[in-house]
Design a protein that fits this description.
Oligomer: single chain
Structural class: alpha+beta
Number of strands: 9
Largest sheet: 5 strands, mixed, barrel
Length: 202
Amino acid sequence: MLKEYAFALTWRVGVLACVAVGVLVLYGRFTSPREQPDETVALQLEPVPEALDPLDMGQAPDPKAGAVIEDIWKPAATPPGGISWSILEATGETTRTDAEGYIVSKPRFTSKVESLEGKRIKVAGWMTPLDNGARQTHFVLLGYPPGCPFHFHANPNQFIEVFAETPFRTDEVKVHVVTGVLELTGEDESGIFYRLRQAEPG
């Protein structure tokens, strides 16, 4: 309790100090003598930019390859003959708070998703490696770019745990097309709704 009070007090004092410094700076700027006191000083305002397109924002260089990863509110494109992320994202959640205060959930699969269980499907996404090395046999396939500002933490219906028979080259920048047998999970409240078994590059 005492620590929280001290932190709150320190934070407030810091904010007040910043405000005071700002006021003093502005006061000095408006009260200091000008070189030409008789002339009217025209304020030159920067032009207001047009509204930025969200699709043009949020690009960041990849630290490994130097490539640009586009952060867009858009899942990976559906490959020919593949399953779209809109179908997988239609799965709902039933959530509860466990004894330790964590939110856990079970899936509510749609009939369309249930019809895909045990079938070999094709889906595209971004890789999050779970193993070290230049090739992966176990990784997470993300529906959205890994740096997307709207998806710091993917929901359970926005990623698939992949177990590959044919190793995939480790690449977190490119979009991977993956085929595998879909397994519906999550009844154990593990936070994983989808797995692909016997997966290989699509």
